[in-house]
Amino acid sequence: MASLNYIITGTRKGLGKELAEYYLAKGHNVAGCSRGKTSITHDNYLHFELDVADESAVVKMVRQVKKQFGRVDILLNNAGIAAMNHLLTTPYGNVKNVFSTNFFGTFLLTREVSKVMMKNKKGSIVNYTTVAVPLDLAGEAVYAASKAAVESFTRISAKELGEFGIRVNAVGPTPVYTDLVRNIPKNKLDELLEQQIIHRFGETGDVRNVIDFFNKEASNFITGQIIYLGGVMK
Amino acid sequence: MKIKINKIILDVLNEIGESQGNDNLVGVTDDTRLFGENLDSMGIVFLVTDLEAAISDEFDVDITLADERAMSQKTSPFRSVKTLTKYVNLLVSEDMKG
Predict the structure, then answer these.
(1) Which residues contact A137 (CB under 8 A, 6 or more apart)?
(2) More confident call, A153 vs B41
(3) Helix axes B81-97 and B2-20, enclosed angle (nearest 10)
(4) B87: which of A52, A84, A129, B6 is 20 to 30 A away, CA to CA?
(5) How confident is the model at residue A47 (pLDDT cuts 50, 70, 90)?
């Protein structure tokens, strides 16, 4: 298989790091970013230390990736902040942070990377939502709202970018044991698992399976779709 | 620099005209009206993406043409080649100053 050029946001830890290392091991090129220094060392890995909601930093990153890789095949808008809090006790600054990373970051990367992808009339973008959206989970009003925005954005950007050969889909994981759910109380996580058809935590491989399905060549007839894990339905 | 920017804009518009089969943009001049007359919203999309890339290649600066300032101006920078040249020149100069 020819090597592909990936941009993956949020690669310092968790799912993003595992995905980046997985694709690098497969012989692909990966450009990643995080607010901190890289934790990945590989000849085919390019790291950018930035906030995905910083417009000029994102613009510079994507232009730099274009210069080094020549083209971008796949964008994984992986960077995300989870937040669990009753809305009555949620600080406004927290809401802004969640929306900045989860939605504004997804928007900025999609806009800039699409400009590169459209030149090749081909590209696949995978956004991240959560089962908290279809399940309307109490305690996740802000997090779910930011991801509901991502879902809308996924469907509409699939329409707007379709004519440029760019497909946009989203994966909706159940909780995976990463930093993202570290601070969520165990009883809350158990309640959530009860609402899934398949009552178990997700694993990185479950998420990667959906991502690879969206990105593979044979899926070139699939865009604007959202797949939830664990048997969760809208 | 302004002359160079003007030339880049004219070249980009010519290319868009040719690739889109838009005769009004082939042989475009400083006074050619753009948005609303000879350039539709999809034309603007191509103009923004191609022009940003061309400016980046030429001057090694990364500008974003569709910014709040461009959208909120009384006279859209996309009105004509002349207004666009002026606006791009401003963005590039600001970026170079840091």
Answers:
(1) A131, A144, A192
(2) A153
(3) 130
(4) A52
(5) very high
Q: Is the pLDDT of residue A229 over 90?
A: yes
Residue type, A207: V
Residue A181 has pLDDT above 80, yes or no: no
Amino acid at A58: V
Instruction: Indicate if A143 belongs to the active site.
Output: yes
Q: Between helices B41-59 and A105-120, what is the axis angle to 10°?
A: 90
Q: Tell me which H or E stretch contains A194.
A: helix A186-194
Chosen from A63, A67, A71 to mutate, greatest number of chain B CBs within 10 A? A63
CB A28 within 8 A of CB A220: no
Distance of CA A6 to the CA centre of its chain: 12
Q: What are the C-alpha distances in Å from A199 to residues A41, A233, B35? A: 36, 14, 55
pLDDT score, position A179: 58
The residue type found at A80 is G
- List the single residue in B with minimal CA-CA distance to A108: B64
Return the structure tokens found at B37: 């007359």
CB A99 within 8 A of CB A149: yes
Q: Cβ(A121)–Cβ(A165) under 8 Å?
A: yes
Q: Which residue has the tokens 């298989």?
A: A1
**Alpha helices per DSSP H over A70-140:** 92-99, 105-120, 132-135
Residue ranges of B 61-80 with Cβ closer than 8 A to chain A:
62, 64
What would the two tokens of residue A81 be?
A: 């902040």
CA–CA distances in Å: residue A132 to residues A103, A129, A173, A196, A228? 15, 8, 9, 11, 10
Q: What is the pLDDT confidence band of residue A180, given thresholds at 50, 70 and 90?
A: low
SS3 A79: coil
**CB contacts, 8 Å: B62 with chain A:** 56, 59-60, 63
Nearest residue to A229 via CA among A18, A221, A205, A216? A205
Residue appearing with tokens 């942070």? A97
